[in-house]
Q: What sequence folds into this?
C-alpha cells in the first residue's frame, strides 16, 4: 500500500460529500428551467476509465469530468489546468497546483493526487494504455517503474509537485509526455493497482473538471451537471448532454434544436448548415489524420507491396469528394502546416500503373481477398472505404469491407486481427507522437525507434528538426502506414452559444466548455 504525507480516509471523503451537498442551494431548478447544451457525436465512447483507452473520441466525454495538469493549444503552447504554473530547470520540472481546485466530492486536489497518478501510470501491472513516462527518473526505457514507486515524482507541499528527468529534454516534449488526467488518490489509493480498471468508481466517476457526472444511457447519451465550484470558473449553463447520433442525422438535429454543437457534421450536409441563419460553421486546420493501417505481421505485405497500396490510392480524390476540400492529402506523418514538416517531401504518390508494376514484381496473390476493417461513426472515413476499395481493385488488390463499432475495431488493431484497417487520430503538436507510427503499425523496424529516440533527445527545435526530417523521409521510403489525409476541424453550433475558442484550442481535448456563453 502506498503511503502519503497526507491521507484522506473514506470517512472523511464521505463527510466532505455530505457537507458539499448541504452547502448546495436548497431549491433545485425544475428541469424545464435548466439551461442545457447538447453536444452531438457520431463515434461512441468506450469508457470513463481513461487508464483503459487510447480513443480520442472517448476523451470528449472524459475531459468534461477530469482535468490534466495543463492542456495543449493549436499553436503548440500550453494553458493551465490543475497546474497554475510550471518551470523546467534542466532536469527538474516543478508544477504549482491551483489551490482552489477540488474534487467533485469537495475534497481538495493536492500534490499527492499527482504523485499517486504517476505511480499508477508507471506500474506496468496497472495496465494504463495511454502512454507512460519514459523521461522521468526511476523508470525504464519504456516508461515503467524500475521498482515499486521508484518514479521520481514527489510532493514538496500540498500544491507543489517536483519531477526529476533522466536527462535534459526539449520542454515541449516534456510537457507533452507528462500531461495526464489526474486520479483522486483519496478514493482509489486503497484499491490495488491491478484492480483499478474494474473498480466501481468508473460507473459514476468523481473528477475535478468543469462538469459532474450525472447519468448515462449506454449507447445513447451521458449527462453532466455544472460544477459550480470549478476553480477556473463555473459554467454558464446547468447541464451538458453528450449524445451519440448517426452522422447523417446530426444536421437535422442542429436545425431542429436537438443538438447545439458538433464537430461530426456530415460533409454532404454542409450546404444546408451554411444556409441556416441559426447555425455558425467554423473551420480550422488541424493535425487530425486518417490512415490505412497494414498488418505488418503478415509477410505478404512487403515494403514494395505497402508502397503499391500507397500509390494505388487517390488521396486528392478523398479530400475533394469526402472533405469537400477541407483538408489535404497526407504524404508523411505531419501536415504541411506543421512546423516540423519536411518541405523537401512534395511528391504526390498516386500512380496506379506503378502500383500494379510493384505488385507483379513482388508476386502478389491477385486471388487473395483482404479484409478492410472500417470503424463506424466517422462518415467520411466510412465513405472513404468504398473509394479505397475501388482504387485497390483497379490495381488488382481485392478487398471485402468489414464494419465494426469503433471500440471493437480499435481492439482488433491492438490485437493485429485485420489485414487492412482504417483508423484516425487527433495528431499531436510535438512530432514525437505525430502519426503514431509505432502504435498503429506495430512496426519492429529499429530505425524508426532510433530516429524517434534521437528526435526526443534533442533539446530544441533547431536540434530536432533535421532528425524529424530524416524520420519523414524514411517513413515515405518504408510505408509502415498509408497516411491518407489531414482533415480540417469543422465545428457547427447554434448561435445561442458564443465565446467558443475554436481557432485557438485543440477542440478534441480542450473545448473550454466552462467559458461558453449560452442564451436561454
A:
Amino acid at each position: 500500500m502506498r503511503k502519503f504525507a497526507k491521507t484522506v480516509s473514506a470517512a472523511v471523503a464521505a463527510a466532505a460529500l455530505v457537507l458539499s451537498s448541504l452547502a448546495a442551494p436548497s431549491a433545485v431548478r425544475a428541469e424545464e428551467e435548466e439551461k442545457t447544451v447538447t453536444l452531438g457525436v457520431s463515434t461512441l465512447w468506450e469508457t470513463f476509465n481513461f487508464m483503459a483507452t487510447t480513443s480520442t473520441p472517448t476523451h470528449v466525454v472524459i475531459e468534461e469530468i477530469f482535468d490534466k495538469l495543463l492542456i495543449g493549444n493549436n499553436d503548440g503552447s500550453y494553458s493551465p489546468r490543475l497546474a497554475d504554473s510550471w518551470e523546467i530547470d534542466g532536469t527538474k520540472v516543478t508544477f504549482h497546483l491551483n489551490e482552489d481546485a477540488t474534487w467533485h466530492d469537495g475534497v481538495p486536489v493536492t500534490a499527492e493526487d499527482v504523485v499517486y497518478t504517476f505511480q499508477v501510470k508507471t506500474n506496468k501491472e496497472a495496465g494504463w494504455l495511454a502512454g507512460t513516462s519514459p523521461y522521468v527518473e526511476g523508470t525504464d526505457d519504456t516508461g515503467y517503474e524500475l521498482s515499486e514507486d521508484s518514479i521520481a515524482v514527489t510532493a514538496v507541499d500540498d500544491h507543489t509537485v517536483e519531477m526529476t528527468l533522466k536527462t535534459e529534454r526539449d520542454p515541449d516534449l516534456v510537457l507533452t509526455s507528462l500531461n495526464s488526467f489526474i486520479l483522486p488518490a483519496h478514493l482509489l489509493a486503497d484499491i490495488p493497482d491491478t484492480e483499478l480498471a474494474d473498480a466501481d468508481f468508473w460507473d459514476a466517476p468523481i473528477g475535478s473538471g468543469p462538469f459532474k457526472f450525472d447519468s448515462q444511457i449506454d449507447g445513447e447519451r451521458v449527462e453532466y451537471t455544472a460544477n459550480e465550484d470549478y476553480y477556473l470558473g463555473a459554467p454558464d449553463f446547468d447541464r451538458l448532454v453528450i449524445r451519440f447520433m448517426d452522422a447523417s442525422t446530426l444536421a437535422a438535429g442542429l436545425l431542429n434544436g436537438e443538438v447545439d454543437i458538433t464537430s461530426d457534421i456530415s460533409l454532404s450536409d454542409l450546404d444546408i448548415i451554411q444556409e441556416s441563419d441559426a447555425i455558425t460553421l467554423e473551420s480550422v486546420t488541424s493535425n487530425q489524420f486518417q490512415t490505412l493501417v497494414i498488418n505488418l505481421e503478415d509477410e505478404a505485405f512487403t515494403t514494395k507491396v505497402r508502397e503499391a497500396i500507397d500509390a494505388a490510392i487517390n488521396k486528392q480524390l478523398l479530400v475533394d469528394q469526402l472533405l469537400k476540400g477541407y483538408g489535404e492529402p497526407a504524404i508523411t506523418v505531419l501536415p504541411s502546416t506543421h512546423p516540423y514538416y519536411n518541405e523537401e517531401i512534395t511528391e504526390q504518390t498516386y500512380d496506379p500503373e506503378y502500383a500494379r508494376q510493384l505488385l507483379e514484381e513482388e508476386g502478389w496473390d491477385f486471388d487473395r481477398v483482404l479484409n478492410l476493417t472500417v470503424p463506424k461513426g466517422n462518415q467520411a472515413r466510412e465513405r472513404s472505404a468504398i473509394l479505397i476499395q475501388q482504387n485497390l481493385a483497379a490495381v488488382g488488390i481485392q478487398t471485402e469491407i468489414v464494419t465494426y463499432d469503433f471500440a471493437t475495431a480499435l481492439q482488433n488493431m491492438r490485437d493485429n486481427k485485420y489485414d487492412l484497417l482504417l483508423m484516425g487520430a487527433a495528431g499531436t503538436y510535438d512530432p514525437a507522437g505525430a502519426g503514431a507510427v509505432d502504435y498503429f503499425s506495430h512496426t519492429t523496424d529499429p530505425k524508426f525507434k532510433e530516429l524517434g529516440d534521437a528526435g526526443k533527445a534533442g533539446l530544441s527545435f533547431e536540434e530536432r528538426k533535421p532528425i524529424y526530417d530524416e524520420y519523414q523521409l524514411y517513413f515515405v521510403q518504408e510505408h509502415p502506414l498509408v497516411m491518407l489525409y489531414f482533415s480540417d476541424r469543422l465545428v457547427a453550433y447554434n448561435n445561442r452559444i458564443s465565446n467558443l475558442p475554436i481557432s485557438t484550442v485543440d477542440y478534441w481535448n480542450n473545448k473550454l466548455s466552462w467559458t461558453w456563453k449560452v442564451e436561454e
DSSP finds 15 helices and 21 strands in the chain. The CA atoms of residues 40 and 262 lie 5 Å apart. Confidence is low (pLDDT under 50) at residues 1-31.
